[in-house]
Amino acid sequence: MLAPLHRWIWRDAERRVHKLIRFGETETDGGRDILRAAEVTPDPLLRRLYLVHAIDELRHGMLFRQRAASLLPALPSSSKPRFRHDWLAPGGHGLDDLEVDGGSDNSMLAFLHLSEKAAASRFTVYRDVLKHDPPTCAVFDEILHDETFHMNYTLVQLARVSPEHHKRYLWRARLSRLWKAYLRIATALAGVIGGLLLTIQYFVLLPPFAWLAKRAAHREPQGWAAIPRERGESLTRQY
Amino acid sequence: MNILGISAHYHDSAAALLVDGVPVCAVQEERLSRRKNDAAFPLGAIEWCLDRAGLEPDALDAVVFYERPMLKFDRILTCALRAFPRSWRSFPNAMKSSLGEKVWVRGIISSHLGVPARKILFTRHHESHAAAAFLTAPTRRAAILTTDGVGEWATLTVGHGERRADGTCAITLLREIRYPHSLGMLYSTFTAYLGFSVNEDEYKVMGLAGYGRPTMVDKVRQLIRPTADGAFALDLEHFEFHTTAARSYSSRFVDLFGPPRNPYEPIDLETPEGQRYADCAASVQRVLEDTLVAIARSLHTETGLTDLCLGGGVALNGVANARILAESGFNRVFVPPAPGDAGCALGAALFADRLHFGNPDRDVPDHPFWGPEVDGVELARVASEDGQRVERFDEDGVLIESLADDLASGRVVGWMDGALELGPRALGHRSILASAESSAMRDRLNRDIKFRDEFRPFAPVVPTEAADRYFELPPGGTRLARFMSGVFKVRPEWRDRLGAITHVDGTTRLQALDRDMSPRLYRLLEAYGSRTGVPVLLNTSFNLSGEPMVNRAVEGYSTFLRCGIDVLVAGQTRVLKRTPLPPSPVGFGEPGLEHQS
Predict the structure, then answer these.
(1) Residue (of B596, B266, B589) closest to A60 by Cα position
(2) How far, in Å, CA of B492 to CA of B494, rounded?
(3) What is the 3-state secondary structure (H, E, C) of B487-537?
(4) CA gyration radius for chain A?
(5) 3-class SS at B312?
(6) Chain B contacts of A78, Cβ < 8 Å?
(7) Do the bridges between strand A225-226 and strand B169-178 make them parallel or antiparallel, or are there none, so unpaired?
(8) How confident is the model at residue B517 (pLDDT cuts 50, 70, 90)?
(9) What's the rounded mean pLDDT across residues B294-320?
(10) Is A237 within 8 Å of B68 when comparing Cβ atoms?
C-alpha cells in the first residue's frame, strides 16, 4: 500500500544514501547486541547460532555502508550526509535498546524473530521499489536471504527452549514492540515540543543575557588564568 | 575508609574503589556493557567494584564524581549565549542533554546507590586528571601538566604536587587555559576534518601523521597563536565547536585546508588527496608537540623540578610525550595507564582521600591491572562445548613454551591473563600477540584480525632490560614506555627484523615490560627470545575494530572465532582453532570474516 511513498523516498539519491548509512548503523548495533547474547547464553547451540546471526548483521552493516559510500561521489558536494539523530529510526540505541544481559533466551529469541520478520517485510518492499538501482537492489536481495534464515532459526529455537510457552513469548514480544513504538513516538513528540519551547525561550528570553555574555567575553583576557589557591577547598559544591 | 570514584556522561565512564587509601579495583563501563566508549552512568562498573570488595553501598564513606556538573553547565550555557544567535540549533539539544540528566548527578548517584547526598563529593575535572597522574606516580615531587578537550572551563592546567615527609600530600594547580582555547579541541577538529570520529579516533591522526610531512605548519599556526604570557589562543573564526554541535570547523577552516575527507572513503596515500590528509595530520601533530614542549619547558624552568606528571586525554599522544621527555628539561615523565576520563574515576577518589580527608599517602601499586580476572575454566567449557581443541596445562612453564613455539612459527595468539587493564592500552593482560618480525604480519593483522586501516601501526612489547638494544630510548624512556606512553625510534639496524612494529617513519610506541608487572608475559617474551633471538612481540589490544577490549574469557572466545587469531589462551587453558565457526545442526555455512568495519 505504501509502495508509492517508498518509491518516492528511495528515488532521491541523497535520501537513499542517508537511509543506507542509517541501516548500516542499525544493523551493526543489532549485530553487537546479538554478539552479546552469544556471549551470555548458557545454551551452546544458541551461542553458535547467535554468533552466526551476529556475523551476518555486522556484514549487512558493512554492505549498507559500502553501497552508501559508492553512491556518495555522485552526490553534489554540498549534500554529503553527516551523522544525524533520528528518533524514529529503530536500532540498537535509544529506546529500542535491547537488555541482553538481564534477559532470557526465550525473550531474546521471540524479540529477534519478530524483528527479523519486520525487517524482512520492509526490505522486500525496498528491494521492489529499487529496481532502477540494481546494485542497491542486490544488497537488499542478499540481506533478505539471510533474514529468512534468521526468522526460521529463531522460531525453531524458541519452540525448542520453550516448547509449551513459545507462543506466549511471541505475544509478549509483540506487546513489547508496540510499547517501545509508542515510547519512541511519544519521546519524539516530546522532543519536538521541548525543542520548540526551548527555541522560543532562546529567542525571547536569552537576547539580553546574550548581550551581557558577549560583553563579558570581550573583557576576558586570553592566555593563562591564575587559579586562586582557595578554589579547590570544598568538594561538596557542584559549581 | 572506602571511597568510590566515578567518571561519566561525557565519554568513557568508569568506577574505581579505594579502601584505606589503596585502589582495590577499577573498570571502565565499556568493558562490562560491551559498548565502546560507553558514557552512560557506570552502574555496571560500580556494582562490580562493590562486589569485588565485598561492600554494600552504605559502607561507602564517600562517592566522588570526577567533575562539577553545574560548573560544566555554566560553561555550556555561557557559550550558547556568547554564540547567540548562531547557537540556536544546538541550544535545545544542549539544554535537553544537560538538564535531562547531566546536572542531576548528586540525585542520580544517591538514588542508584542509596547513599546520602552529604557523602557525594565533586572534584574539578582537571584536579581529577592531576591526581590520577601525580598520586599514582612513584615520585615525591613533580610538576603537573594536564590537558584535554575541556573539563568544566579549563582545557589545560599546570601546577605541582608533593608528598610530604609527614605523609600528607599537596596538589597545587597554578594556572589554567580556559575554553574555547584548547589543544584537545584543536586536535579533535582535525580528527573530524580528516573524517575520523571525535573523542575516539585521535590516535588515527597520530598514526596518519607518520605518513605525511608537516608542510602545513604555517597554516595550522594561523589557527593557534602564542599569547604574550606563554600560553596560546585559538583563532575562533576557524572553528565552530564552541557555537554548534553540527561541525567542529568553519568554512574559513575549509578555505585554508581544502575540502574535508569523506569518512566513508578509504585514505589512499598514493594519491595527492591522500597525501594532503597525511600532511595535514603531520602538521597539526607538529604544532601540538611544539606547543606542549614549550609549555612543559617553561614549567620546568619555573618549578625547577625533575619529574613531570602528565594527565588528560592529550597525554595519550605518545609522540608528543616523547618530545616532552627529550626537550623540556624534565628527567622523568610519568603518564598513568588511563590518562583520559576513565582514569579520572581513580583520580577523583585519590584526590578526595589524600586532599579532602587528609589521609596519609599510601603507595599505589604501579600497574594498570584493576579490572575483572579472566577465568580459564570458563574458556575451556565454552570451547569444549563447541568442539574446539582445548588443552589445560597444570604447569605454566609448559604452556609458555608451547605458546613461544606458536608465536615463533607465525601463529597469532589471543592472550588473556589475570586482571583487565584500566585504560585504552593493552599492557599484557588482554592482548593479541604475534611475531614482530615482518611487515607481512602487520598487514595480516590489519586485514584478517583487526579489520582496520592499512596505515595503522602496531606496538611492540619487550623486556625492559632488552629495550635499549632494539629501540633508541632517551634517559627516562623506559619509564615512559612502561604504559606504552611514548613513541621512540626503532634502531635502524633492527627495523627490517622488526618490520611488523616499525612505523613508516621508523618509530614505534613500545611497552617496556618489567618482570614484576606481568610475570607470565615476561616469561613468554624470554621463551620467544630464546627461539628467535629477538625477545620482542607485537602487542595489540584484544578487540576488533569498533569494539571495546575483551574482558571475560567468553568475549575473547567470540572474538577468536570471528577473526584470524590462531590460538587463544586464558589462564591455563589453550584453545586451537579447529574451524572458523563450529559446525551446528542447522547446517549454516562458514561466514565471511572480512565484514568488520
Answers:
(1) B596
(2) 5
(3) CEEECHHHCCCCCCCCCCCCEECCEEECCCCCHHHHHHHHHHHHHHCCCCE
(4) 24
(5) coil
(6) none
(7) antiparallel
(8) very high
(9) 97
(10) yes
Inter-CA distances, A42 with A39, B84, B389, B453, B553, Å: 8, 55, 20, 35, 14
**Cis bond upstream, residue A4 (ω within 30):** no
Residues of B in contact with A238 (CB under 8 A): 68-71, 103, 105-106, 122
- Among B84, B356, B596, the residue with its CB nearest the CB of A210 is B84
Q: Find the mean pLDDT for residues B384-412.
A: 94
| Inter-CA distances, B342 with A29, A182, B15, B125, B159, Å | 23, 36, 8, 11, 21
Contacts of A178 (CB under 8 A, 6+ apart): none
Q: d(Cα B432, Cα B428) in Å, to the nearest integer?
A: 9
Q: Is the pLDDT of residue A82 over 80?
A: no
Q: Is the peptide bond before B460 cis (omega within 30 degrees of 0)?
A: no
- What the block records as the C-alpha cell of A212 is 551581557
Give the H or E element holding residue B435.
strand B430-435
In the predicted structure, residue B461 carries a pLDDT above the cut 80: yes
Of A203, A206, A222, Cβ closest to residue B81? A206
- pLDDT, tens digit, for every residue of A140-170? 999 999 999 999 999 999 999 999 999 999 9
Mean pLDDT of B495-516: 95
Residue-level pLDDT at B246: 78
Report the alpha-carbon distance of residue B114 to residue B93 in Å, rounded: 30
DSSP string over B214-272: -TTHHHHHHHEEE-TTS-EEE-GGGB-TTT-SS-SB-HHHHHHH-SPPPTTS---TTSH
Predicted-complex ipTM score? 0.87
Q: Is it the case that residue A91 has pLDDT exceeding 60?
A: no
**A132-142 average pLDDT score:** 92
Partner residue facing B591 (CB), from A55, A77, A194: A55
Mutation test of the interface with chain B: which of A28, A227, A230, A233, choosing the one with the most B Cβ atoms within 10 A? Answer: A227
- Smallest CA-to-CA distance from B567 within B523, B524, B522, B511 is with B524
Mean pLDDT of B142-157: 96
CA neighbor of B180 nearest in space, from B240, B253, B127:
B240
* Contact present, B66 and B126 (Cβ < 8 Å): no
Cα–Cα distance measured from residue B172 to residue B130, given in angstroms and rounded to the nearest whole number: 9
Task: Dig out the grid coordinates for B490 from the structure.
Answer: 626503532
Judge whether B59 and B2 are in contact, CB under 8 Å.
yes
Judged against a pLDDT cut of 70, whether residue B580 lies above it is answered with no
Pairing of strands B141-147, B154-163: antiparallel
Side chain identity at B94, as an amino acid letter? A
Residue-averaged pLDDT of chain B: 93
Residue type at position B202: E
DSSP code of A94?
G
Span A63-87, average pLDDT: 67
B212 contact partners, CB below 8 Å, separation of at least 6: B275, B277, B278, B279, B280, B281, B282, B283
Per-residue confidence (pLDDT) for residue B586, from 0 to 100: 34
User: CB–CB of B162/B141 below 8 Å?
Assistant: yes
Give the integer Cα–Cα distance in Å for B231 and B224.
10
Q: Please, what is the angle between helix B396-408 and helix B519-532, to 10°?
A: 50
- A239 with B68: Cβ contact below 8 A: yes
Q: Tell me how far apart the alpha carbons of residues B60 and A230 are, in angstroms, rounded to a whole number.
A: 27
Secondary structure letter of residue A227 according to DSSP? P
A 10 A CB-CB count for B78 gives: 17
Question: How far apart (Å, rounded) are the C-alpha atoms in residues B421 and B482?
Answer: 13
Whether B79 shows a pLDDT value over 70: the answer reads: yes
